[in-house]
Amino acid sequence: MKLRQVRPLQGLRWVRAGFAAFGAQPMAYSAQLGVAGLVLLLISMLPGGPLLSIALLPLLSWGFTVSGREQAAGRRVPALPWQAALRDPRQRRGFAALGLLYAALTFGSSLLADAIDGGRFNAFVDQLARESAGGGGTLDASGLEGTMALRMLLLGAVSLVFWHAPALLVWGRQTVAQALFGSVLACWRGLGAYLLMGLGWFLLLLVCLALVQLLLLALGLVQAASLAALPAGMAFSTAFYASMWRVYADSFEEEASAAAEPPAPAQSA
User: Transmembrane segments in this chain: where (predicted)?
Assistant: First the structure.
């Protein structure tokens, strides 16, 4: 694997590529996101499930990179793109290690944020739970913006560490340590593009939500306006994941043997 030079404006092109990929096969990508969400929901109900759900995120997100690769080759997006990796013992061990490390760092970033904000966020969550249960009281959201920004920053940093690691583990045939290092290096060298991409997704989502809610309010659909965030958020999430192959392909130059490797068996959605 060789790193490509990624310019900052490429980040906005990745946003456009995500919408283009999603628009070409919307039902297939939506079905994949639905399957992934259902798996996470069911696992979260088990003992220790929430932590296991976090550990599965590298594998599930890599599936969208597989789907994008299939789509770029002119094939249908597979409904279950994770099968090939789970059949290979080396890749199973690699994804298990990646998942455990991802869960540990995610949990660690939460503990660090708690230590920095003095438990303010957890106190707000407790107040919100009491309010939902009818316990009354006034919600104190003072300083919440700062702690939320801190948590997003820490989680964003963890995400960049693991961004390309699954693809490098499978297609680059790298060890877990090499894959993590390659992901960090790629994200660092193209940091401007990744930051601009994140900003682009965030601003587009805000604008879209505002326009939809204004339209529904103008039509007198007040209750529908409050519910508009859910479908809009789902559509943006799917388009975001649909962009992952383009981000990887623009960040790394695959060797001829890897590029010619037959793709994972596809199952049509």
Answer: 12-29, 35-60, 95-113, 148-171, 191-215, 221-242
